[in-house]
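Re: duplicated header lines in exported structure tokens

Our pipeline writes sequence and tokens for each protein into one text file. With two proteins the header for the second block appears twice in some exports. Here is an export where it did not happen, for reference. First protein block:
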Amino acid sequence: MAAQKKSLLTRQPGKTIWVILAIILTIIRLSLWLTYFIPKSFRQYRTRTYCQAVTNELLKEILYHLSVIQPVVLFLLNPGAEKERFTTISPAKDSLYRGVTQDSEVRPAVIGGTWFPSPYRSEDEQEKKVVLHFHGGAYVMGDGRQRESGYGAGLLIKHMCATVFSVQYRLSSDQKCPFPAALQDAYRYLLDQGISPLSIVLSGDSSGGNLVIALLRYLSDNKGLLPNPSAALLWSPSVDLAAAFRSERHRGQQELQERFPDLLQPFLGRKRRYAVVYGADASIHLTPSPPVRLGNPYLGTGWGQPSSFATTSSSLPKT
């Protein structure tokens, strides 16, 4: 029954019908939240502002409906609005893919990336740092273009006086691109442009931070394959996705809610939703033989030698 429901809501016309109903229902609920959260005592936490309380509920509602219809993000390789700042990246030679990146089904493919604020020019920017940034989005949404990554790239440029290259890596919401697709798409391109590894800084937010950690582990496990970058910046990274899955399968509901941000709590116990684990089945109710084993070290902690800076925040307020 679960499989049948999933099929109906992830293809037309079921997907369109669900979206229409979801929009109507969300508008109704939003009108109720705008009144309900006026008193502080009714908010998720008393420390939250009125705007934060309403936005939190709205985001939870949107994420839930996205998890139901499971949209696939279009992976476009045309320049678009980015024009000359967008470039395509061809796969590397086979000898650069070893160990975890060697997969009989998931093969390297052409991807894209966007330069901020302008394309790198070796003759003008030898002294600048080049930040290789990986966007967030739980490996199922987002891209490296201006609309999605422009704000973060602007902050990096402002505070680091650097050039930023934001990668449009393949997402696991496309069934043809599970693990290790995103890992295969990283780093080598900048080295091919003649940029010194001492000038390259890896950067990633959320799942992008997890990808940075996986890339550093890959470089550490395959010493001599590619040189290490100079540093890594991790912005609220998803550090150990496998632990989150182990918790959901083996811990009680109350303890699990304490571990997860309340943004994710509405999903707990649902059999069908987006996988927040890289390349896993599109359901948190894992099958007996998941496509990515939870113990896979490239989904957890550990990395190589470069200096690393990480920033995080608590999911729950202090009491």
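Second protein block, exported in the same file:
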Amino acid sequence: MLEKSCGLTVDCVAYDLEDSVSLNMKAEARQNLASHLSKSKPAGVREQAVRINDVRSGLAEDDLAAVCQSPNLETIVIPKVDSASDIRFVADYLAHHRSPTRTSGPHKPPNIIALIESAKSLSNLSSICAASPLLSGLVFAAEDFAFDLSITRTPSLTEFLYARSAIVTAARAHDLASTIDLVCTSFRGAEGEKILEEECINGKNLGFNGKQCIHPNQVSIAQRAFAPGEKEVEWAVRVTVADGKAEGRGAWTLEGKMVDVPVVRKAKAIVERAEVCGIDVAAIKELWRDQKPE
């Protein structure tokens, strides 16, 4: 599986040391992963992450010891984060063990991603988000959350609406870059792809900017769903081009609709995201270079 990951084109690959590794295989998994992370990062993988065991398991410190010196480790994913102390435990470990004098790799410490999986974690979101400057995002773990609350996951996902909205809101309030939505367990056949696409669109509309994928077949669908659409990018480019000619006006119109500072900020964010997604924004700008504010 480690070798297969090298052929992916993804934003992030999260290698797991937690649930997918049985207790008697933990040591071997750590060794294999450390060896893998010592190699050059695959060209198609933007970020390499490791999901460690939760800090109360008694296994997290051994996980961190195995991988924290890896030069290509960019993110630590912490499961079952119930409080800010879980984040600080990992941040403090990294501060003491991944210093410039102890690693041959980049001096910058890895980012931290927190998995939100319980009622307690949801109630502590604000303090979790403020726990460390290394924290760069939140991930909603729906199955564990459903277990904790004794609820059943349904196709509508309405039972998770409060939790998902709270996670996105907290992440935005604390300027965290990543808000990653729940896993879609369907990935085979046309029906599975349809369910995945619907879940992605639903998550995007709630404010999530990414989705957990459990199979390579899910990647392209998620990437397409979370990338700005063709009409969305065209609108954003037209707004940004026209705004450059607005001569300081606080508000103007485009096709009869008001454009003010918040709208321009949104348009610029869409353009930036489109560029990250590999969309040829320059060509669209050239097409609309004569756009003027109305």
